[in-house]
UniProtKB/TrEMBL annotation:
Exonuclease domain residues: 19-184
The UniProt record lists the keyword Secreted: no
Protein's UniProt name: DNA polymerase-3 subunit epsilon
Gene Ontology cellular component list: cytosol
InterPro entries documented for this protein: Ribonucl_H, RNaseH-like_sf, RNaseH_sf
Pfam families: RNase_T
MF (Gene Ontology): 3'-5' exonuclease activity; nucleic acid binding
Keywords: Exonuclease, Hydrolase, Nuclease
Biological processes per GO annotation: DNA metabolic process
PANTHER family recorded: DNA POLYMERASE III SUBUNIT EPSILON, PROTEIN NEN2
């Protein structure tokens, strides 16, 4: 089993552009900026999903609680890149697309990690899929609410909770399923046509 991609996620970022990218992170310990895994789900204009994940050396101790939750430990990230290295490779694609997160934890974690290393934070627009889920399924309020675990049960989603790539895919799926229920696409989650032209030009070079 490939411990770097135990759920078969992509190891490299696919060519874009994308309608939006769902983002999820896992953290190692007591600091919110101690990211040990980033997961991305790239959603095309036709609703196709491609999932990517990468392990990160958080350069801080792992707490047993966190490791029990996501299964990532110091041994797991041996040889993995640090946040600045991984973030630099992802910066352009994240900074040029609309982003989705389930709650606001992921944006806060990335912001904290950037502050820790003195890196610029991405300036993309973020959509909270929890808020979208509340509009689509208001009856779920309370009793587990609109967390991914409860939505997994209610919507019959198939994913491994607390893996960053899996949770990113789940968050993207929540958006797509919510749009079906609401009967319309979220107007702000659209492909930037100028961006699409730029990507097509690069791919044709």
């Amino acid at each position: 089993m490939d411990v770097l991609n135990r759920f078969g996620h992509l190891k490299t970022v696919p060519p874009g552009p994308f309608r939006f990218i769902a983002v999820d992170v896992e953290t190692a310990g007591k600091t919110i900026g101690g990211i040990c895994q980033i997961g991305l789900c790239f959603v095309s204009g036709t609703g196709d999903l491609q999932t990517y994940s990468v392990l990160i050396d958080p350069e801080e101790p792992f707490e047993p609680f966190n490791t029990d939750l996501h299964g990532i430990s110091a041994d797991t990230v041996t040889g993995a890149g640090t946040f600045p290295t991984v973030y630099a490779a992802l910066f352009d694609v994240l900074n040029t697309h609309k982003l989705v997160q389930h709650s606001t934890f992921d944006e806060m974690a990335l912001t904290a990690a950037c502050a820790r290393y003195g890196l610029p934070m991405i300036t993309s627009h973020w959509t909270n899929s929890v808020t979208v889920a509340r509009h689509a399924w208001p009856a779920l309020k309370g009793g587990g609410g609109h967390g991914l675990a409860n939505l997994k049960k209610h919507l019959g989603l198939d994913f491994h909770h607390h893996d960053a790539g899996e949770d990113a895919r789940a968050s993207a799926t929540v958006i797509l399923r919510a749009e079906e229920v609401l009967g319309m696409p979220l107007s702000h989650l659209t492909i930037n046509r100028q961006l699409a032209f730029q990507f097509e030009g690069r791919l044709g070079e």
